[in-house]
Amino acid sequence: MEKMHYHAAGIDIGSRKVFVGLEDSPVRWFETFTSDLELLKDYLLEHQ
Questions:
Q1: Residue 18's closest CA among 8, 26, 27?
Q2: How do strand 17-22 and strand 9-13 relate by DSSP bridges?
Q3: Pairing mode, if any, of strands 28-31 and 9-13?
Q4: Quick check: 7 and 25 in contact, CB under 8 A?
């Protein structure tokens, strides 16, 4: 199947955790506290 979107992430937002899937990387999760969401932002920026 041809890729339609490059540099995309699959994100599942729950009440206590946010799960993020990037291509060729294991799924990571972050809690929903502000400090953890800052780590999530840094993670996504690091992987463009």
A1: 27
A2: antiparallel
A3: unpaired
A4: no
Walk across the sheet containing 28-31 and list its strands: 9-13, 17-22, 28-31
User: Which structure tokens are listed for 22?
Assistant: 């990037």
How many residues in the chain? 48
Encode pLDDT of 1-21 as tens digits.
Answer: 676 767 788 899 999 999 999
Residues 6+ away with beta carbon under 8 Å from 40: 18, 20, 30
DSSP 27: -
Decide: 29 and 19 in contact? Cβ < 8 Å: yes
